[in-house]
Amino acid sequence: MGAFDGLRALVTGGASGIGLATARLLASQGAHVAILDLAQASPDGFAACVRADVGDDTSVTSAVSSAVDTLGGLDVLVNNAGIGAQGAVADNSDDEWHRVWDINVVGLVRVTRAALPALRSSAHGAIVNVSSIAATAGLPQRALYSATKGAVLSLTRAMAADLLAEGIRVNAVCPGTADTPWVARLLERTPDPAAEYAALAARQPHGRLVSADEVAAAITYLASPAAGSTTGTSLAVDGGMDGL
Ligand code: NAD
Predict the structure, then answer these.
(1) Considering only CA atoms, which residue is closest to atom 2 of ligand 1?
(2) 132 CB under 6 A from ligand 1?
(3) Of 239, 199, 213, nearest in space to 26 by CA
(4) SS3 content of the chain, % helix, strand, coil (to 5)
(5) What number is the average pLDDT over the span 207-234?
(6) Less crowded by CB within 10 Å, the N or C end of the chain?
C-alpha cells in the first residue's frame, strides 16, 4: 500500500532535478504521475509527459487539460518549474525582471488556474509550491530571483486561504542549495567546477548540498493525505541555513 494509491499528480519542471525526484517518489508511492516541462521528459514510470512553457498561457492550458484527461482527474499539483537569475537589485533590466517573474510567479499562477477545476473535484486536493531559501535568507546577487521566490511564499499563504473552504491544501518548500543539473550548469561556468562545488558544500551549515531526493521527500509529505491538517505553511530543506 502506497500513500498515494489511487491519487493523480502533476509535477511541473518534472524532467530534471527536484521535479524529477518528486515525480519518481510520488510514482513509487502509488501515484499516477504526469510531468509538464519545457523539455522532453523520459516517460519511464509516468502516466504522461506533456511539453509546455509555463510562460505561455495557451500552451499551459492545453498541456494541463491533456494531462488531466490522461490521469482521469487530479489530486496533487507540484508547482516546481522555475528559472534562476543573478545580480544585485540594479543589475537586471526591465526585460529580465519581466521574463523571470513571468516564469517563476505568473507561470505558477497559470498552471494553478488551469488545474483548479480538476483539483476541486478531488477529495484530497493539495498544491505544493517550490520556493527557495532565497525567499527569506537575504542572499547576495540574487535580488530578482529572491523577489520571485518571496512572491511564491506569499502566494502560497494567499492560495491556502482562498482554497481552504474547498478542501484544497496549499504549502511550500524552501530548498537550500540543491545538487541538481541547475547547480551543475552554474558550476560549469566557473574555471574549476570541482573546487567550486567543494567551496559551495563548505558554505552550507551541514557541510554539503541538499539532495533532490530530500526536497522531494518534503514535497511528497506536504502533498500526502498524512499532511491533512497542514496548509499555508512552508518547510525549509536547507541544512539549517535559515532556521539556525
Ligand atoms: P533544474 O534546472 O534541474 O530543473 C528545472 C526544470 O524546470 C527543467 O526540467 C526545466 O526544463 C523546467 N523548466 C524551466 N523553465 C520552464 C518553463 N518555462 N516551462 C516549463 N518547464 C520549465 O532545476 P532544479 O534545481 O531542480 O529547480 C527546480 C525548482 O527548485 C526551481 O523552481 C528552483 O527555483 C527551485 N530551487 C532550486 C534550488 C537549487 O539549488 N537547485 C534551490 C532552491 C529552489
Answers:
(1) 182
(2) yes
(3) 213
(4) 45, 15, 35
(5) 98
(6) N
Concatenating the DSSP letter of every residue in 147-180 gives: HHHHHHHHHHHHHHHHHGGGT-EEEEEEE-SEES
145 given a catalytic annotation: yes
Can you tell me the distance from the alpha carbon of 128 to that of 8, in angstroms, rounded to the nearest whole number? Answer: 14
What CATH number is given for 8-237 in this structure? 3.40.50.720
The pLDDT tens digits for 43-88 are: 889 999 999 999 999 999 999 999 999 999 999 999 999 999 999 9
Give the distance (Å) from ligand 1 centre to CA of residue 1: 30
pLDDT above 80: residue 243: no
Q: Is the CB of 17 under 6 A from ligand 1?
A: yes
- Rounded to two decimals, the ipTM of the complex is 0.99
**86: closest CA among 14, 175, 183, 17?**
183
How many Å apart are CA 220 and CA 136, to the nearest integer? 22
**Domain segments of the chain as ranges:** 8-237
